[in-house]
UniProtKB/TrEMBL annotation:
<dbReference type="InterPro" id="IPR011042">
    <property type="entry name" value="6-blade_b-propeller_TolB-like"/>
</dbReference>
<keyword id="KW-0472">Membrane</keyword>
<feature type="domain" description="Strictosidine synthase conserved region">
    <location>
        <begin position="497"/>
        <end position="582"/>
    </location>
</feature>
<feature type="transmembrane region" description="Helical">
    <location>
        <begin position="329"/>
        <end position="346"/>
    </location>
</feature>
<feature type="transmembrane region" description="Helical">
    <location>
        <begin position="157"/>
        <end position="177"/>
    </location>
</feature>
<keyword id="KW-0812">Transmembrane</keyword>
<dbReference type="Pfam" id="PF03088">
    <property type="entry name" value="Str_synth"/>
</dbReference>
<keyword id="KW-1003">Cell membrane</keyword>
<dbReference type="Pfam" id="PF02653">
    <property type="entry name" value="BPD_transp_2"/>
</dbReference>
<feature type="transmembrane region" description="Helical">
    <location>
        <begin position="246"/>
        <end position="267"/>
    </location>
</feature>
<feature type="transmembrane region" description="Helical">
    <location>
        <begin position="87"/>
        <end position="117"/>
    </location>
</feature>
<feature type="transmembrane region" description="Helical">
    <location>
        <begin position="197"/>
        <end position="220"/>
    </location>
</feature>
<dbReference type="GO" id="GO:0005886">
    <property type="term" value="C:plasma membrane"/>
</dbReference>
<feature type="transmembrane region" description="Helical">
    <location>
        <begin position="305"/>
        <end position="323"/>
    </location>
</feature>
<feature type="transmembrane region" description="Helical">
    <location>
        <begin position="47"/>
        <end position="66"/>
    </location>
</feature>
<feature type="transmembrane region" description="Helical">
    <location>
        <begin position="279"/>
        <end position="298"/>
    </location>
</feature>
<dbReference type="GO" id="GO:0022857">
    <property type="term" value="F:transmembrane transporter activity"/>
</dbReference>
């Protein structure tokens, strides 16, 4: 699965994110896309919630057009009715997304339309006043529903069913009291404008519907109010606990629904030039069927007014097909009832099985074929077990909880993160208590000093931070530009785990996965997919991906010459060199391949070489499972996480290697008692500091003088004086 040939940066490809490292996996081009995971990502998209019902609704629409007399000649009438039904559907969608239901929209249309005619023809109000009055009347009736449901906490279905009857009865009373006068028409430019007028060449009704559709869509998907509505419909209790004014949100959804029903009443009255209590009768069934066809969930929390508008078009075409075939109106009602029943059941089943499919297909392992396994237990080799690390004196014993990495300043003070988000500082040898130097809010992983002596930390789940002398963390970078063809949002640096500084001040960091976070690293040791990448942060603060499609990059180190960086691939058991300067700039070439374990953070040594731990060891079982991705996928579905077969963790191994890839020394804690896990090895002032994400201490091992050189491992390579010292040593 590895290759020894260097990889070169090809010509400009706008869809590629930096140097493509997929070739190192040895996989076929067809394996670049994880099939199961792609389906899972598609199903997980929000727009897929109503996709299947919507596609079936469109198929039903095509079938109706193909088998009936509905054609282009019916388009104007269809669009007129879509404008009126659509306003009701928009309001009903907002109510449903907010967790309610409104069955009274049809009665509100009838009452407001009749009231507008009475105000215009009986009370002789100015027509310019009649229109807003009808909309306000609809909002007031919606407020009645909102008051009963949101404030008095009555059941939405029963409440709106009662108001459906009550508002319809009020319209009948109004009709009976003014039946003679409202039959007398009078000319009005306002009514003519709503019926035959145009705005920007578009019929008024169509234009108003389009404007309302766009505004409500943006409000529902891009505004705080829209997020509140969705959160309220998803889980009212959680929304209330998170400070969302659930009562107010619910109340105003009904007010909006009533106002849109009043607007629909104006359009209907203008088109028909008359009204009666039967106008709006059964419109609530039409609107409800339309929104369900559009994939709006009747359970609340999800839906789109755009999809609801498509559902309205389907329902209207079915209505026109029924009329054009000469069927009675009762047939249309039966058809709507049948369609509503079928698509309601479909919505419930699709929502249930879609989520199951997402969870079932989310983990999609790749085939992993490594080279021959080195037997580290065989005596007489460089890999032979020993106890060099066993008796290293501890620092911060019992205080630290899982230090992934550390940094040591010129005064011998030790800085290290732990799993609680803290950065500890231990002042010299005598400080056993330590102090909390900084609180990052994430999981501090990689540590490095920049040229100005400031501590730069890769904080898992947060991004890259720079910590000042006062312990205050300052954000450096937490996102990159999203990949143009990615189904998931890969812009966040959620799994940032190590970093180092280049001579020009750039920060290079490994982001081991665009799909998981730091706490879920075991998923990467099961999938072995090229989900990782290497990020560069320029001195100006801009971020870019320099290497993409990398398998579990888990260590970054600037080489002594400052012209390249070393990258540890935990997933592929190898170390690669990315040239960032010089004639080989843009090339990726191997340094170490087929290691017997899984490498972690890389750091420079004082003698011109490098220190690197093996955080886990390969076994015959892990290598065998790597060749059978289907078995690993079945394992993740059938077994608990604690029972997954993963590489052998807690092995306590640190190695020293050269620029040419020679293994110079291997240090072990054979007992695995004091330092069972080593994830970083830092050298400073003749001592080796041992960090481990599972340990409750940091080890401080004194090196033999023959192992110590004259270089400062903490200094930024390639800067003044450092490059000359490195060249002199070589």
């Amino acid at each position: 699965m590895t290759t020894s040939s260097p990889m070169r940066r090809s010509g400009f490809r706008p869809l590629r994110r930096g140097l493509d490292a997929f070739g190192m996996t040895g996989g076929r081009p067809t394996e670049r896309i994880a099939r199961y995971r792609t389906v899972s990502d598609l199903f997980e998209k929000r727009w897929m919630e109503g996709a299947v019902p919507l596609v079936l609704a469109l198929a039903l629409c095509v079938y109706v057009i193909a088998t009936t007399n509905v054609g282009p000649a019916n388009a104007p009438l269809v669009l007129d009715e879509v404008s009126e039904y659509g306003l009701l559907a928009i309001g009903l969608t907002v109510v449903l997304v907010g967790g309610g239901i409104d069955l009274s929209v049809g009665s509100i249309v009838g009452f407001c339309g009749l009231g507008a005619m009475v105000a215009d023809r009986v009370w002789l109000w100015p027509t310019a006043l009649v229109v807003p009055a009808a909309i306000v009347a609809g909002a007031v009736l919606g407020a009645v529903n909102g008051y009963l449901i949101a404030i008095l906490r009555m059941r939405p279905f029963i409440t709106t069913l009662v108001t459906l009857i009550a508002f319809g009865g009020a319209a009948s009373v109004l009709q009976n009291a003014n039946s003679t006068q409202i039959g007398v028409t009078k000319p009005s430019l306002v009514w003519d404008f709503f019926n035959d007028g145009r705005i920007l060449g578009i019929p008024t009704a169509w234009f108003l519907f389009a404007v309302v559709l766009i505004v409500v869509h943006l409000a529902l998907t891009r505004s705080r109010w829209g997020w509140w509505v969705t959160a309220t419909g998803s889980d009212r209790r959680s929304a209330r606990r998170n400070g969302i004014p659930v009562t107010a949100v619910t109340f105003w959804t009904y007010v909006l629904s009533g106002a849109l029903s009043g607007t629909a009443a104006i359009l209907t009255s203008a088109r028909l030039a008359r009204t009666d209590p039967n106008v709006g009768n059964s419109w609530e069934i039409i609107a409800l069927t339309a929104v369900v066809l559009g994939g709006v969930s009747i359970k609340g929390g999800r839906g789109s007014v755009l999809r609801a508008a498509v559902g309205v078009a389907v329902v209207t075409i079915i209505e026109q097909a029924t009329v054009s075939d000469g069927a009675q109106g009762s047939y249309y009602t039966v058809i709507l009832a049948a369609v509503l029943l079928v698509f309601t059941v479909l919505d419930l089943k699709w929502g249930k099985y879609r989520q199951r499919a997402v969870e079932k297909l989310k983990i999609d392992p790749a085939r992993l074929s490594l080279g021959p396994l080195v037997d580290v237990t065989r005596p007489g080799t460089v890999w032979s077990l020993n106890r060099r690390l066993t008796d290293a004196p501890p620092v911060g014993l019992g205080k630290i909880r899982g230090a992934e990495d550390c940094a040591v300043d010129g005064e011998g003070n030790v800085y290290c993160g732990d799993q609680r988000g803290w950065v500890w500082r231990f002042r010299g040898l005598d400080d056993t208590e330590g102090e909390i130097f900084s609180r990052t809010g994430g999981f501090p992983c990689g540590h490095a000093w920049d040229a100005e002596g400031r501590l730069v930390v890769a904080v898992g789940g947060m991004g890259i931070y720079r910590i000042g002398a006062d312990g205050e963390p300052e954000l450096v970078a937490n996102k990159v530009k999203r990949s143009p063809l990615s189904l998931i949002d890969d812009s966040g640096l959620r799994a940032i785990d190590d970093l180092d500084i280049a001579p020009d001040g750039s920060i290079y960091a490994s982001d081991f996965s665009t799909r998981t976070n730091t706490a879920d690293f075991l998923l990467e040791l099961v999938e072995f997919r090229p989900n990782g990448r290497v990020i560069r942060v320029t001195p100006e603060g801009k971020t870019e991906v320099v290497v993409s499609n990398y398998v579990f990059p888990n260590g970054i180190c600037t080489a002594h010459d400052g012209e390249s960086i070393l990258i540890a691939s935990t997933g592929l058991c190898r170390v690669d060199r990315l040239w960032i300067a010089g004639p080989k700039k843009g090339q990726l070439e191997p340094v170490l391949e087929n290691l017997p374990g899984y490498p972690d953070n890389i750091n420079r040594s004082s003698d011109g070489n490098y220190w690197m731990p093996l955080c886990a060891m390969r076994t015959q079982m892990s290598d065998l499972l790597g060749r059978y991705p289907a078995v690993r996928r079945r394992m993740t579905r059938e077994a608990a996480v604690d029972n997954w077969v993963v590489p052998q963790l807690n092995t306590s191994c640190a190695i020293k290697f050269s620029d040419r890839g020679e293994i110079l020394a291997v240090l072990w804690d054979e007992t695995m008692e004091n330092y069972p896990m080593v994830t970083a090895v830092k050298e400073r002032d003749g001592h080796l500091y041992l960090c481990g994400v599972s340990n409750n201490r940091i080890g401080k091992l004194e090196l033999d003088p023959s192992e110590v050189g004259d270089l400062d491992p903490a200094a930024v390579p390639g800067t003044a004086g450092v490059r000359e010292a490195a060249e002199a040593l070589r």
